[in-house]
Design goal:
mainly alpha, 3 helices
Length: about 100
Amino acid sequence: MSIATEILSLRRDRSSSVKTLLALIDWEHQAWEPEHRTTRHFAVLEAADAVLMNVAAHAAEAENFLGGVPGTRRAVPAPRRTRRRSGPGKLHQRRLFA
């Protein structure tokens, strides 16, 4: 399954991924045996990935929406450097170590 297909399948799911994550965290804390705890911890990590994927999808949509509006981003001018000219016969070097 490609990442794009996975993102689209998550977007079609109308249940809250955050609500699912919180429920899985509670479910993980109810486990007493180490094997159950490990398995449930893995499920929590998968749910956290789903939440992050949903956030990334929403952020990409928002960026595409805002990116089309002219003037939303300013170009930052590069700083101009001036060359110092030393007098004739004088060589100046920068100190390497203070």
